[in-house]
Write a structure and sequence with these properties.
By secondary structure, the protein is of the alpha/beta class. It has a single domain, classed as 3-Layer(aba) Sandwich (Rossmann fold), CATH 3.40.50. The chain has an eight-stranded mixed β-sheet, sandwiched between helices. Helix 1 packs across helix 7, helix 3 packs parallel to helix 4 and helix 4 runs parallel beside helix 6.
Length: 227
């Protein structure tokens, strides 16, 4: 059995990723801040639920303790929780970085002892090509014309964290990804995006890498992305 934890998995890409990994036979833990929504999503899929607010140290610690007690290890961690702030001010910046960046540090550090018990530990982080300096400075890319200050800056940090963890934890794969512009609650205001099923396949591909797979990369469905 492959033991998988997905943060922010009660809806959107996280929910669909959980569904696809369950179909592959994984034991999937849906991490969600809202217990009612998380439990409902887990019941709908046949997954397991842990209350997990990536901005709360105690919540993160409790979730990983629960998984440790039940499973004794963690094979795959998918960092999916994230927010997109459209306002640009101090409070919005703090919220963006606390959720999108610091949350990854909290969950990763709590999960490392469990990941080290796996024979093929794998961490996948949903980042964004909006965090790629190459993409946002290229007039031929759609990111060039999207001034999402805080989201883009936080995703640059997310990709850098992925690289640094890959270097410091050589026994664990760490990869970031651009899942593709997806129709979710996050993008609803823009009226854009493809079905979550397509973007979740990008997550699943990286989540199911074998032991020879890459680490320290930013990828999309076509392969490695410059950043």
């Amino acid at each position: 059995m492959t033991i998988t934890l997905i943060t922010g998995a009660n809806k959107g890409i996280g929910f669909e990723t959980a569904k696809q990994l369950l179909e592959l036979g994984h034991v999937v833990y849906i991490g969600a801040r809202d217990a009612e929504r998380g439990e409902k999503a887990a019941a709908q899929l046949g997954a397991r639920f842990v209350q997990l607010d990536v901005t709360d140290e105690a919540s993160v610690a409790s979730a990983l303790t629960t998984i440790d007690a039940a499973e004794g290890r963690l094979d795959i961690l998918v960092h999916n929780a994230g927010i997109l702030e459209t306002e640009v001010n101090g409070p919005a910046a703090l919220r963006s970085f606390d959720t999108n960046v610091v949350g990854i540090v909290r969950v990763t550090e709590a999960a490392l002892p469990l990941l080290r018990k796996s024979s093929n530990p794998n961490v996948v982080t949903v980042s964004s090509s909006m965090g790629s300096f190459w993409a946002v400075t290229n007039p031929e890319r759609p990111e060039f014309a999207m001034p999402l200050h805080l989201y883009a800056a936080s995703k640059s940090a997310v990709t850098m964290l992925t690289l640094q963890y890959a270097k410091s934890q050589p026994g664990i794969k760490f990869n970031a990804l651009e899942p593709g512009t997806t129709a979710t609650d996050m993008t609803a205001a823009f009226g854009i995006g493809r079905p979550v099923t397509e973007s979740a396949r990008v997550v699943v591909r990286l989540a199911t890498l074998d032991s020879s797979g890459p680490t320290g990369t930013l990828q999309d469905e076509a392969g490695e992305l410059a950043w």
